[in-house]
């Protein structure tokens, strides 16, 4: 993602500009999805204070939210009861038939995903994700309170 590369190189303004460039395509995508009856929900669990990476990520995510994705934010302490043995994984469901657990290295680099087709596992995960989404805060209100005022991170 070009915005990510600009962030890594320390060019905060360019990172934000490149994130904003995604808006027209995202707006078109979400309009087309809505016309087909496809609803995309996204819930981000966030630990405060934010790392510089998460601060950066909230800018392209905001463009997505403003373009039509139903995004909410849950602060980490609200999910601690679900993470007694391990952190909650990042999962993506495609309807009720397929789910992917997204995998990352210790430095946060995407390494692939594990596909699951077990409908009972998918149903349990979908219920939990719906509950987390419901308990989450509107993306824009969280952004305004926790992100908008932050100075650009230094030393990427």
Task: Report on the architecture of this protein.
This is DUF6879 domain-containing protein. This protein has 156 residues and is of the alpha+beta class. The chain has one domain (2-146). It has 6 helices and 6 strands. It has helices spanning 2-8, 12-21, 23-35, 52-67, 119-135, 139-146; strands at 41-46, 70-75, 90-94, 98-104, 110-116, 137-138. The longest helix is centred in the C-terminal third of the chain and has 17 residues, at 119-135.
Fold blueprint:
Layout (H helix, E strand, L loop, with lengths): L1 H7 L3 H10 L1 H13 L5 E6 L5 H16 L2 E6 L14 E5 L3 E7 L5 E7 L2 H17 L1 E2 H8 L10
Parallel strand pairs: 1-2
Antiparallel strand pairs: 2-6, 3-4, 4-5
Write out key terms for the chains shown.
156 residues, alpha+beta, 6 helices, globular
Main sheet makeup: 3 strands, mixed
Backbone structural class: alpha+beta
What radius of gyration results from the CA coordinates?
16 Å
Count the beta strands: 6
**First and last CA, distance:** 16 Å
* Strand line-up in the sheet with most strands: 1-2-6
Following the backbone from N to C, one meets helices and strands in this order, namely: HHHEHEEEEHEH
Mean pLDDT: 93
InterPro entries: DUF6879 (IPR049244)
Domain DUF6879: 2-143
Organism: Actinokineospora spheciospongiae
Protein name: DUF6879 domain-containing protein
